Amino acid sequence: MASQSDQIGEFDLIQRFFKTGADAMHPKPAIGLGIGDDCALIHPALNEEIAITTDMLVEGRHFFVGADPELLGFKALAVNLSDLAAMGARPIGFTLALALPSANQQWLEAFSKGLFSIAKQYSCSLIGGDTTSGPLTISITAFGSLPTGKAIRRSGAKPGDDIWVSGTLGDARLALAALRHEIALSETDLQQIEHRMHQPTPRVELGIQLREVASAALDISDGLLGDLKHILEQSQVDAQIFLDRLPKSGILLKQNSAIQNQFAACGGDDYELCFTAGSHQRDAIHRISQSLELTLTHIGQITEKKNTAVQIELFSADGKRLSDTETMPLLKSFDHFAS
Amino acid sequence: MASQSDQIGEFDLIQRFFKTGADAMHPKPAIGLGIGDDCALIHPALNEEIAITTDMLVEGRHFFVGADPELLGFKALAVNLSDLAAMGARPIGFTLALALPSANQQWLEAFSKGLFSIAKQYSCSLIGGDTTSGPLTISITAFGSLPTGKAIRRSGAKPGDDIWVSGTLGDARLALAALRHEIALSETDLQQIEHRMHQPTPRVELGIQLREVASAALDISDGLLGDLKHILEQSQVDAQIFLDRLPKSGILLKQNSAIQNQFAACGGDDYELCFTAGSHQRDAIHRISQSLELTLTHIGQITEKKNTAVQIELFSADGKRLSDTETMPLLKSFDHFAS
């Protein structure tokens, strides 16, 4: 494990590809110390707290072997910013732990280009990291700030609340199906939706504006219905979802309704926000939608919990409740360990 | 990548092995929200800042294939607490990102046992994480608190400062050499030092007490001389080290002097603190040593920088300066990318 060599080494790598990128940014005042010491330092402003989230992406599991490193750098940070957004936190900085089979400079240049493009877009600085050889694995921990007590938790949904989602659902799953040749898509159609899989847009501004509006929120990474269950469990409530209301892109709407429902309801990799809010907030939500030029769709209701396990009742376009056998295939969530 | 299954899944795993352990602890008041939401929340006390460090451990690189999961859980957190200690920070909490080839319950039980044993010892709570399938990789990000402006940085060493190390050096490297059959050690001797490799003691209390005493500090993970260079580079100074002063265990002292010097000077995995302090602090340092019952050894001096690159001059027992060819093999640092 210990070894001696004069080739390009761990410290050079971090220095060259990451420290340079980090130094080029204007870190937020909350960052007291960035890369180069045993620890980074963050001091939040008075009456602010720090939101923390972590994700690990593994080659062959979360992205294809040989995936474009620039897209990968972008997405690795995007999915963490999406978690910050779901709490209503404003990004401050992140740490990067990276295992790489070899110190491939070309790969590192492209990866850091993608990484810093989104980091700059959201003023989120790289403040520390670790680089090692090993199977390609990317682990990012991201930090955001928000006024103390204002975080949107999963536990606040109340019976009677509306259920909302941002943007459209299912396109990332449709792009994956097309790239896997499970579904045939025209070149033009694929081009229009492929960015939803590779370069998700974290809904950071939406999260911040929802702080005073939403009763609960999360980001949809494993599919709407699977993720919604986390809100239900934490809030101890049930839900009714109207499948025909799920927002879909024009490309997904060209598919048959079974594919539409499955991909929109449990596709995964959407990185939209699902949130709940009292019905008195509808006007406020419409105003947020207009100001952000982002579609926000009312897709269902929170209801009283009926049984021991939380329950999602699904309704079809004609208002008919789907039977358990019709519902079952849709309620299965994305699971990294299942195979 | 998306898949459907009723077997034990990602969320169950996190729930069962980690949330239970986390819930059993009494988190520090700084932790506003732990596992179970999109993010954890930390709110430091007034006039405190948060120190953040991250590490990634890869099977076959940082630990042997098939390594004891209980020891691994312990060490994975210990090395991060060691980084917090080097800044003078008091541990608060940590996130864990874990890739595992399969959802092996026995492995997870042992790993979490080791992890929580050290987490409890240092009152450092698990506050979030991510679990996925993949080649065994452990990435921990740890958080500590300290009074604003009191962090011990690498950049504060001044010419004339004494250089100190805690504990003894080289035993972890000696244990590794014995386990690799590079060096023959008696069963009894190996038993006495093996814990230095598997269960390093993060010098948390020492770091806290050094806040008002040390001018610079870091923890020794890649070998004393290689790591000391980071202090020299950040502080723009040179150093003189007296090799015969390096503190060694009785077991290491049984080896020939070449092995002693190499393992103590650049063995790696020591997780002791190396720090600098003005000579007027010697009494204070002796008092800290006595109160913690921890040996602190004065091993050299910080000097003015002479050339473009920082330089470490090594001196032998008879006060003779080692030539560059004698010094060279000792100055090479542990590097994860070199092979």
How is this structure best described in words?
The structure is a homodimer of 339-residue chains. The first copy, chain A, is of the alpha+beta class and 339 residues long. The first copy, chain A, folds into two domains: 9-147, 60s Ribosomal Protein L30, Chain: A, CATH 3.30.1330.10; 154-331, Phosphoribosyl-aminoimidazole Synthetase, Chain A, domain 2 (Alpha-Beta Complex). Chain A is 35% helix and 23% strand. The first copy, chain A, is built from ten helices and twelve strands. Chain A has helices at 10-23, 69-87, 105-121, 171-179, 187-198, 204-210, 224-235, 257-266, 282-292, 324-331; strands at residues 31-33, 40-42, 48-58, 90-100, 125-133, 137-147, 162-166, 216-219, 238-242, 273-277, 296-303, 312-315. A six-stranded mixed β-sheet of chain A has the order 8-10-7-11-9-12, with helices on both faces. Residues 1-8 and 333-339 of chain A have low confidence and may be disordered. At the A-B interface, helix 1, strand 2, strand 3, helix 2 and strand 4 of A face helix 1, strand 2, strand 3, helix 2 and strand 4 of B.
